[in-house]
Write a structure and sequence with these properties.
Elements: H1 16-26, H2 29-42, E1 46-48, H3 76-79, H4 91-96, H5 110-114, E2 154-155, H6 160-169, H7 175-186, H8 198-208, H9 215-225, H10 238-247, H11 253-264, H12 266-270, H13 274-281, H14 285-296, E3 312-313, E4 320-325, E5 328-333, E6 341-343, H15 345-356, H16 362-402, H17 404-409, H18 420-427, H19 431-438, E7 442-445, E8 448-451, E9 459-461, E10 467-469, H20 470-482, H21 492-501, H22 508-517
Parallel strand pairs: 4-7
Antiparallel strand pairs: 1-6, 2-3, 4-5, 7-8, 9-10
Helix pairs in contact: 1-16, 6-7, 7-8, 7-9, 10-11, 11-14, 15-16, 16-18, 18-19, 21-22
InterPro entries: RNA_pol_sigma_54, RNA_pol_sigma_54_core-bd, RNA_pol_sigma_54_DNA-bd, RpoN_core-bd_sf
Region (Disordered): 38-157
Domain RNA polymerase sigma factor 54 DNA-binding: 369-527
Length: 529
């Protein structure tokens, strides 16, 4: 049995303008430059340059500001199938009838006029328009390419693979061996290692190059590749990598002892059981100390010592510039990658030409619709950029006021506990907005460049009753570990007691978590001779 029901629902939708603002807000300065260039390419109504006076579009207005109140749907007149824009229109009548009600045939040209009002676009006129998809700009909504877009980074001068292939060309190998060598070089990862089995590489040569080779033959070419620069390249594990680097050293006593340690007592070396190594190899204290010191100076990742194949070097471009002068903070946006934008005056002239045209056929209507869409898109984009800058400044200003002591002295111990909610309440915005601002943004201060996430940390209870920043606790923990005796490093239990003695109520598991976040190994691995 069929039933007809009526129900009332309350839902919330994001307009294309809101989606565009969210996307622009979360990208850093480096990517903003690419986003602006992309928009300049797809929208001819948007161009670089200083803003025109606010009355740029006054000639296109109806002559009465109240006309906007009745103009809820800017596309209603143009999208009405009954309207063809092929009737003559007297421009003088427009001034006599500023009040319009849509849709009305005689007042169709009013639609393109109101779209080119002042540059301060009132987005509320468009929020209730379900047919807003016609105005949707590239990048407004989720797309296939948006999520995978990489931040624009500076390319390196060359790649490790190119360097190795160049050396392979001068190695004197025949064509068959060079084919094997190219396959081996292609199997080297970013750290400079070949982690695949040689049998698998031989199978790849059989399938891809139609070249049947044996594992010993591949290994023979591998030994040649391992003689290339940088030293240690093409190793199959860390032990082989370190030994390859030692083989290029002058064979002195310290080098020979280091090779013995890696060959005969590698497991004890990884666990820093130095006494067992001394007993097994019959080494004096000075000899093992010199050999261990030599090993520690070797490069465990030779692939990172030169340009990595296909890799990029990321340079941090600060989004904010903060200076301190006579007790006052000066906060500015880094706008060198955000040029001044304006709506193209040429498109305004097009509107004037369309208004004065005596004949308005279907093609004229399509042209008006296209120009109107581009003008709306340009104004929405400019508005989103301005709103982005305003939100960034408000958020960063609140962070500076909250962490004023740190920005004055640069002392990490002066950082206060601060979470996203604190800043959101300060600037009366949603937590998600503050999160988007803090994500991938950085500020340049007198003490260096810091990511905004650096200033957010949880609080740790103290004996005084006040909360201390977890960043402050990590700073003190790092100081304690750096000042410990390396022959007898402090365990997590001892570190916990020392922090408790300083008034920080912290558990041992929290000490271990903070130590791992600081990339500090356990006490046994911090032991030195």
């Amino acid at each position: 049995m069929q039933r007809l029901d009526m129900k009332q629902l309350l839902s919330q939708k994001l307009s294309p303008q809101q989606i565009q603002f969210i996307k622009l807000l979360q990208i850093p300065t480096a990517e903003l430059e690419a986003r602006i260039k992309e928009e300049l390419e797809v929208n001819p109504a948007l161009e670089e340059g200083e803003d025109e006076p606010e009355d740029e579009f006054d000639d296109l207005d109806s002559g009465d500001d109240d006309a906007d109140d009745d103009y809820d749907d800017p596309d209603a007149a143009l999208d009405n199938p009954d309207n063809t824009l092929d009737e003559d229109y007297d421009g003088d009548q427009r001034d006599e009838q500023p009040e319009v009600e849509l849709p009305v045939k005689e007042e169709q040209p009013e639609a393109p006029e109101s779209s080119s009002e002042s540059e301060d676009l009132d987005l509320s006129d468009y929020l209730n328009d379900d047919e807003i998809a016609g105005y949707k700009m590239q990048g407004d909504g989720p797309g296939e390419d948006d999520d995978g877009r990489e931040m624009p980074l500076a390319d390196t001068s060359g790649s490790l693979m190119d360097n190795l292939l160049s050396q392979l060309g001068f190695s004197g190998l025949d064509e068959r061996q060079q084919t094997i060598g190219r396959q081996l070089i292609g199997s080297i990862d970013g750290d400079g290692y070949i982690r695949r089995d040689l049998s698998a590489i031989a199978n790849d040569l059989a399938f891809s190059q139609n070249l049947e080779v044996s594992v010993p033959e591949v290994e023979g070419v591998l030994h040649v590749v391992q003689t290339f620069d940088p030293a240690g390249i093409g190793a199959r594990d860390l032990q082989e990598c370190l030994l390859l680097q030692l083989e290029r050293r002058v064979q002195e006593e310290a080098v020979e002892n280091a090779e013995r340690i890696l060959q005969d007592t590698y497991e004890e070396f990884t666990k820093k059981h130095y006494q067992r190594i001394q007993q097994k190899l019959d080494l004096e204290d000075d000899e093992i100390k010199e050999a261990i010191g030599l090993i520690l100076k070797l490069n465990p990742k030779p692939g990172g010592s030169g340009p990595v194949g296909g890799g990029k070097i990321q340079y941090i471009i600060p989004d904010f510039l903060l200076s301190h002068d006579n007790g006052q903070f000066n906060l500015t946006l880094n706008t060198r990658n955000a040029p001044e934008l304006r709506v193209s005056p040429a498109y305004t002239e097009m509107f004037r030409a369309y208004d004065k045209a005596s004949k308005k056929d279907k093609k004229m209507k399509e042209a008006v619709t296209f120009v109107k869409q581009k003008l709306d898109s340009a104004k929405w984009f400019i508005d989103a950029i301005r709103q982005r800058q305003n939100t960034l400044l408000r958020t960063m200003d609140a962070i500076v006021r909250y962490q004023r002591e740190f920005f004055e002295e640069g002392d990490e111990s002066k950082l206060r506990p601060m979470i996203l909610k604190d800043i959101a309440l300060e600037i009366s915005m949603d937590i998600s907005t503050v999160s988007r601002v803090a994500n991938s943004k950085a500020v340049q201060t007198e003490f260096g460049i810091y990511p905004l996430k650096y200033f957010f940390s949880e609080g740790i209870a103290t004996d005084s009753g006040e909360d201390a920043s977890s960043r402050e606790v990590k700073y003190i923990l790092k100081e304690i570990i750096e000042g410990e005796q390396k022959k007898k490093p402090l365990s997590d239990d001892k570190l916990e007691k020392m922090l408790n003695a300083r008034g920080y109520n912290i558990a041992r598991r929290t000490v271990a978590k903070y130590r791992e976040q600081l990339n500090i190994p356990v006490a046994r691995l911090r032991k030195e001779l």
